[in-house]
Design brief:
Layout: H1 2-10, H2 21-24, E1 27-33, E2 36-43, H3 52-62, E3 70-77
Parallel strand pairs: 2-3
Antiparallel strand pairs: 1-2
Length: 78
């Protein structure tokens, strides 16, 4: 499942860096429990984009993976 998750995240570009979410290093935590995937994204201080469109893309891509029914994404600033 980890490979499928990484593949899905590699298909979504973080708009400020222009890198995909795996390469950008913004995902600091990823855990799955009871078919719910929880992700923490830490965006740099001064990063004004709330990543709403990207969060929706991530959710859509990851809920297509067998064994994931829900995706919860928390965006914080570090």
């Amino acid at each position: 499942m980890e490979t499928a998750i990484n593949k899905a995240l590699m298909g979504i570009i973080e708009p400020v860096s222009g890198l995909n979410f795996v390469e950008s290093g913004l995902i600091t935590s990823l855990s799955i429990k009871d078919k719910q995937l929880r992700i923490i994204i830490e965006k740099p201080h001064g990063h004004d984009n709330d990543l709403a469109a990207e969060r929706e893309k991530i959710t859509q891509a990851l809920t297509k993976i067998k064994g994931i029914d829900r995706v919860s994404i928390l965006v914080t600033t570090h």
